């Protein structure tokens, strides 16, 4: 009896140990993130590619799995529905254009955590990240004004919406901070995915005398950068360092550090299982925006110092930027 009793107790111990290890194993399961890219999708050398780099870094350094969707047909709700079915720990909506579909999906799935980039949502299960694009664009405007020989600049917008207007406002005020009499030609492409249209608008502005172009127009803007290179004038990229789009033209880029923001959110999710704040607003102070290295048209030491001083004054509030 004693032997049988000992054997039974041993089996019970093994059984109990096996059962108790299951939750621990579940806790060690890899976390995952799903993302719906904005209209133009991967390969824009800008907004989407930056976010994708952040997820790749999270995968490589944190072991977080991810999947992505593109919706060139505009079916954002369908793409979000697919990601929800995959039961990700977090689903990211990239860009203001997906906000309506994201919020509709978030209301239907209140237990699913979402992240909206470039928009602000008041829903409890949606975290929002916006960037102070106007601060980085102010610095680009300074570079443009220091570089131009005609005192005429060009700006191309992808759409007439508040987030894109911030680029324009910052760029204009930065340029006029250096030279109040400077002229800026502006045009709205109403399109983020047409490089030929971007080149057409750029050439129109160049014919008017613009010798430095800036855009907030995604892949449409990439066409403008290439047109600037063909016309032997300068340009600035946006969101990512776009020097390699047109190496003879791109002096700098207004870098919106979406990759860092996505990685930081993923890291918080990995380490704590949650996201600490409902809304993040990232500017120069938070290292959320800034300038890519200045190439092609090197600035003088005095000009570089002036940009550094302006950066400090923007952070301190001594240089206010009107975005209205």
TrEMBL record:
<feature type="domain" description="ABC transporter substrate-binding protein PnrA-like">
    <location>
        <begin position="37"/>
        <end position="322"/>
    </location>
</feature>
<keyword id="KW-0449">Lipoprotein</keyword>
<comment type="similarity">
    <text>Belongs to the BMP lipoprotein family.</text>
</comment>
<keyword id="KW-1003">Cell membrane</keyword>
<dbReference type="InterPro" id="IPR050957">
    <property type="entry name" value="BMP_lipoprotein"/>
</dbReference>
<keyword id="KW-0472">Membrane</keyword>
<dbReference type="InterPro" id="IPR003760">
    <property type="entry name" value="PnrA-like"/>
</dbReference>
<dbReference type="InterPro" id="IPR028082">
    <property type="entry name" value="Peripla_BP_I"/>
</dbReference>
<protein>
    <submittedName>
        <fullName>BMP family protein</fullName>
    </submittedName>
</protein>
<keyword id="KW-0732">Signal</keyword>
<dbReference type="Pfam" id="PF02608">
    <property type="entry name" value="Bmp"/>
</dbReference>
């Amino acid at each position: 009896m004693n032997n049988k009793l000992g054997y039974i107790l041993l089996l019970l111990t093994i059984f109990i140990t096996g059962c108790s290890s299951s939750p621990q194993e579940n806790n060690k399961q890899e976390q995952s993130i799903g993302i719906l890219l904005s209209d133009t999708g991967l390969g824009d050398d800008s907004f989407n590619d930056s976010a994708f780099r952040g997820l790749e870094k999270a995968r490589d350094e944190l072991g977080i799995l991810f999947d992505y969707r593109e919706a060139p047909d505009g079916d954002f709700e369908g793409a979000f529905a697919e990601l929800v079915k995959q039961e990700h720990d977090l689903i990211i909506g990239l860009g203001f254009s997906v906000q309506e579909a994201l919020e509709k999906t978030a209301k239907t799935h209140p237990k699913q955590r979402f992240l909206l980039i470039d928009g602000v949502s008041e829903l409890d299960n949606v975290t929002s990240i916006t960037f102070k694009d106007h601060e980085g664009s102010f610095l680009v405007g300074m570079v443009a004004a220091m570089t131009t020989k005609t005192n005429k600049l060009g700006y191309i917008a992808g759409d007439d919406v508040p987030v894109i207007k911030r680029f324009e406002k910052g760029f204009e005020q930065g340029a006029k901070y250096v030279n109040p009499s400077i002229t800026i030609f502006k045009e709205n492409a109403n399109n983020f995915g047409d490089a030929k249209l971007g080149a057409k608008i750029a050439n129109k502005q160049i014919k008017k005398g613009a010798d430095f172009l800036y855009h907030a127009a995604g892949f449409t803007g990439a066409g403008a950068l290439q047109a600037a290179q063909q016309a032997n004038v300068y340009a600035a990229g946006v969101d990512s360092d776009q020097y390699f789009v047109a190496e003879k033209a791109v002096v700098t880029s207004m870098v919106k550090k979406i990759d860092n923001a996505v990685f930081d959110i993923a890291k918080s999710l990995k380490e704590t299982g949650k996201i600490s704040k409902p809304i993040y607003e990232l500017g120069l102070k938070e290292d959320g925006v800034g300038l890519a290295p200045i190439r092609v048209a090197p600035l003088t030491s005095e000009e570089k110092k002036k940009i550094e001083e302006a950066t400090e004054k923007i952070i301190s509030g001594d240089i206010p930027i009107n975005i209205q």
